[in-house]
Design goal:
By secondary structure, this protein is mostly beta strands. It is about 0% helix and about 35% strand. The chain is built from no helices and eight strands.
């Protein structure tokens, strides 16, 4: 059964610092078939995407205090950035396993 992973976007406590993008669960075990979405808890919009290709994850930026649509990633490591001007340094990584993690054997 697929799992939905939340990436929280929050304002940096250091004045002028880039917003912080972090998974709600640490460490996440994202697998192919799982879904990822961003929850913008900041006071300004954000637009996570690949450098030069912001529409990879969603068609539009995420308004303040709202969430993005779900994104179903492929296997591999996805390095993303906030593609809005003035949001340099806002970035994150999604590592997606080719197969779901197995549960430990029941004794």
């Amino acid at each position: 059964m697929p799992f939905a992973w939340r990436i929280n976007i929050k304002k940096n406590p250091k004045k002028g610092g880039p917003a912080i993008f972090e998974f709600e669960e640490t460490p996440p075990q994202v697998a192919v078939g799982d879904l990822v979405f961003w929850s913008n808890n900041d006071t300004v919009p954000h637009f996570p995407g690949l450098a030069g290709a912001p529409q990879v994850f969603m068609a539009n930026q995420i308004a303040a205090k709202s969430s993005s649509p779900n994104y179903a990633p492929n296997a591999g490591t996805i390095n993303y950035v906030c593609s809005l001007p003035g949001h340099e340094g806002e970035a994150g990584v999604i590592v997606v396993a080719a197969t779901p993690p197995s549960d430990p054997p029941v004794k």
